[in-house]
# Entry
Amino acid sequence: MAATLTPSTSACAACVVVPSAEALAGRRARTQSRLMLSVPAVQNATSISEVERLLESVPGVRSARVNLTLKRVSVDAEGDVTAEDLVARLAAIGYPAHELDPGLLSVTENDKRGRDLLMRLGVAGFSMMNIMLLSVAVWSGAEGQTRDLFHWISAMIALPTLAFAGQPFFASAWTSIQARRLGMDVPISLALVLASSISLFETIKSGHHAYFDAAVSLCFFLLAGRYLDYRSRAAARSAAEELAALEVPRALRLEGAQETMVAIADLRVGDLVRVRPGARMPVDGVVIEGASEIDRSLLTGETLPVQAVPDTVVSAGEVNLTGPLTVRVTAAGKDSSLHRMADLVAVAESARNRYTSLADRMARRYSPSVHVLALTSFLSWLWISGGDVRLAVNIAAAVLIITCPCALALAVPAVVTSASGKLFRKGLLIKDGTALERLAEVDTVVFDKTGTLTLGTPRPLALQDQPPAALPVAMALAAASAHPLSLALVAGLRDMGMTPAELSELREVPGYGVEGRWQDRRVRLGRAAWIGAEEAAETATYLDLGQGGAPLTFRFADSLRPGARAAVDGLRAQGKNVMLLSGDSASAVQALARDLGIADWRAGALPAEKANVIAELSAAGRKVLMVGDGLNDTAALAGAHVSISPASALDAARVASDVVLLGQDLGPVADAARISVVARRRIKQNFALSLVYNLVAVPVALVGLATPLIAALAMSTSSLMVTLNAMRMK
# Structure
């Protein structure tokens, strides 16, 4: 139908920028001095500058700072500056935004762990370079007291550095030992401790060789890998947190004839709240007064707004489009449907986090073997040498260093980095380090419909078949509305070169449509029941020219996303099962499934039902790839084995996904599935290379032919082999 919106609001399902209920009430009194807005369109330094400059020009705004990684802007402002002021100004320059509740978001600016790792990495790098300078002098032939002096200076640099920079490995190793298991950090920590201890002993005894350079270099490169891994994980924020922050923090409670702004936590079942046009529903409830239309697309996937009249049940997070509503509260805050969805996401995320990567599985087998070998070499040489502890410890240290799992630690990240770069050039951004491994295991792909296989934007069908005299009238009526179907109708008629007719007495009838007068006749554009037309099976709006004849039907279809057909065909060609799971109507879903050749489809699925379908498939042993874009897909995205969302998706959906599709073309989804299989093969090849290296190098170390320095060089060679093999992905 073609009901109207006030011109200042947006009915776009992909960018309902959800100003708060307080904002739309026009209330200026506000005690909060810090506002947090999500601005998904911020992409680069130019965007940052434009947003910050605009916001800082608003009277009362003291400062505005954009976080590019999180696509958020933090605003410090006077108490009378409200979120709707800032949202409206940003929308005017092409940056749709919505308010977030700062109290429900992590303070990422105080990222202590990330800064801690970076600081330790810097210290290790600085020390490594200085020790290398001293080592070059020793390798060049320094002898006697000069060599001893350089060794002592190296010791004074290396020992504090290892004690400080190696803490992440030492702490992790200690935790593993307390838990009675051997993780990768246990042999790494032993190698660092033994290499530095032997080097100190050799320095005290005026020995010819010290290995401070090898120990600090090992620490530096491992810290670099640890920091990069941490940053990739930090980029994937908690989707449950983002969903909770989307909840409306305040609502207009009706107390008699007076409206009072209160926190959601203060609402009780049975309270009455007023929801203005353009605002999100702050609570679950039942409409008791007013008529409007509700946009449920972000929650249910329904493409067409639904009519809201008294006794209509509404849910938190839905958007009121056209008229004010009075709602009786049935659930608020933690009891609301939106919060329950956040709980579903949190549960799904925790289940997916239990995935064990190939590297971790290899470490469980590899680490115990390393310790057994080192201990065996120490005891054997202690017996062979007649009790020469110095020789036995040197050989044991060489075994530990030569078997240090650097190549194993690089086996996965090197391939993931190479494959991620290849996919990025195809328009896919990998957010999670294990996403490619999980994607390679997928045998079932589940697509959402609206906003995923389709663009979520209606387009009018067969306008040229309508009576020419009716088109200018339809255009004039549609131009008075911001309803999605009206906007599409105006755009389609404008492309035909049509100009609107002159109408008078234009007015909106909330929840029904638009009417006016043309040639002294009342004309209407809107719902079938209001017009007196027979409801069509497809999405449609109806025109009554007031001539007593049958109303005209304007039918619409959702625009297919570019590459959708290629993605579905490509995935089927790889032997994967393809399924369509949507909250839209059965007729719309069936039509799309038939068009794309998808035999398995389900319509009318609510968010919890989508998550249940994914859980059922997983319980049946299927490895599911979920591709979706809306709030209603978030729990399913988090619960799937691996998930992809378009860049145009809502923040919470992108956060819950492992991979983000940067462009409109859906074709790269099939490429990602194919490349992930190749990447997994490369990872297994890297493990094989690492094991072959150990089979050759370990015996050399065990018979005493490899000093710790030679062991360090051999270890570096194995790491280089693994990296070069990973680069073949390009």
